[in-house]
Amino acid sequence: MIAPWIFVAAARVLTLDDALAETERLQPAVRVARANELAADARADVARAVLFPQLTLNASYQRSTANFVQRPGAVPQSVDTSGGISATTYDFFNFGATISQQIYDFNQSIFRWQAQKKTAESAVQQTRDQLVQSAYATRIAYFNVGAQRALVLVAERTLENERKHLSLAQAQVEVGARPAIEVSQAKTQLANARVQLIQARAAEDNAKQTLNVAIGRIAGVDFDVDLVSAPPVPGEELTADVLVDAALQDRPDLAAIERQLAAADATLVSLKGGYGPTLGLSSGVTEAGRRFDQMAFNWNILVSLTWNVFSGLSTYRSVAEGSSEKTALEAQRDALLQQVRAQIAQATRALNAAREAIGAADDAVNAARERLALAEGRYQAGIGNAIELGDSQVALTQTEAQRVQADFNLASARAQLVRALGRR
Asked: Rounded CA gap, 352 and 349, in Å?
């Protein structure tokens, strides 16, 4: 049988930096955010288009009869319009070009464009925020894989110790120093250690699959991760108040909602412009006739002033809707500010607790190892018993698992602090 460590050595090692880079490239939520960012930028360009001159070209061909139809008021009664009806049809060609320019509409168009620009800027910040959230999920999943791998190593060491204990019990029974039941007990503990190792390996595979999902890739679990502690977060030694100030400057979700508020302000100005008239200018040329060699040219210029004096209160209600949406955004911003402070405080408390727990877990592991060594010596000397030996092994396994959990808690706290600061 090939030792487990050979498989670990043969597996591809996925570093945290590689995992984060793949997340930015592959995570579907990040790709959706980037697509929304591009769409918002395109909508801003669409809103700006109305500020430029509009040129329209048209061409038509018609084949119809030429029978005259009198309309009241269109032709004086003194003009004789009577005549027969003919089924003869004629060609008619019409070519034209029109250029128009909106002159002024009480800031409706320009502030509608400004609102879309701010919305596009908000989408950029939302993409940054999605990158922060996705990087956090990847970090937690990555550190969890490392923790599960460390637990596999603990289970392997436990299994190896139980094999040694079984050999020791068999030797003691063979010389008549121990009852045969202690061999059976050692075999039971060895079987339990095997079960724990199988479960630990299954948990490691599940953790790797969760990491794949966090990254956004379709892959197997034939990889390993670096069994290194999470690096310190720059500035983690600072006070919570200082970290909060830094988060308020860097958090992309805060920047996104501030730009949404700016968009809401611009939208309100645009909506209020609906109370005023719209001034426009257009000019057109036409070339029309029954034959190409008998075309008639015309040109016109038009200045128009349009004022929707009463629109069923739609402008009034639109302004009220815009004001309500702005109020809602302000409330969301205030709630987010509270959330930032809470997240920073929670992350710093978790970080301090995790750092303290590391030292305590190390002391517990060292004590448990000394206890197991003494129990093995006492058992071999014939003055200890199997229960004492088994309890010592269980204590060591539990304290090593607690040490792994302490490492994971420290890594998780640092990942929380990175997210709370708005970093990737």
From this structure: 5
The phi, psi pair for 300, rounded to 5°, reads -145, 160
CA separation for the pair 78, 22 (Å, rounded): 86
Task: Tell me the residue type at 398.
Answer: Q
Beta-bridge partners for 14: 225
> What confidence score (pLDDT) does residue 1 get?
30
pLDDT score recorded for residue 4: 37
What does each C-alpha distance from 371 to 159, 165, 172, 291 come to in angstroms? 18, 15, 21, 111
Domain boundaries, the chain: 4-49+58-64+95-420
β-sheet bridge partners, residue 89: 65
- For 174, the token pair is 């063979």
| CA atoms within a 13 Å half-sphere pointing along the CA-CB vector of 158 | 30
pLDDT for 75 equals 63
What's the predicted TM-score (pTM) here? 0.86
Q: Which residues of the chain have pLDDT under 50?
A: 1-9
Residues 6 or more apart whose Cβ sits within 8 Å of residue 304:
279, 280, 281, 282
Specify the pLDDT at position 174: 86
How do the residues of the chain divide into helix, strand and coil, expressed in percent and rounded to 5? 65, 15, 20
CA distances from 345 to 137, 143, 357, 409, 419 (A): 20, 22, 18, 16, 13
Give the ranges where 15-107 is alpha helix by DSSP (H).
16-26, 28-49
Question: What one-character-per-residue DSSP string does 257-311 give?
Answer: HHHHHHHHHHHHHHHHGGGS-EEEEEEEEEEEESSGGG-EEEEEEEEEEE-----
Tokens (6 digits) for 162: 């139980």
At 8 the pLDDT is 39
Q: Give me the pLDDT at residue 82, please.
A: 62
Rounded to 10 degrees, the C-alpha dihedral 125/130/136/137 comes to 180
Question: What pLDDT score was predicted for residue 83?
Answer: 61
d(C-alpha 185, C-alpha 43), whole Å: 73
CATH number of 4-49+58-64+95-420: 1.20.1600.10
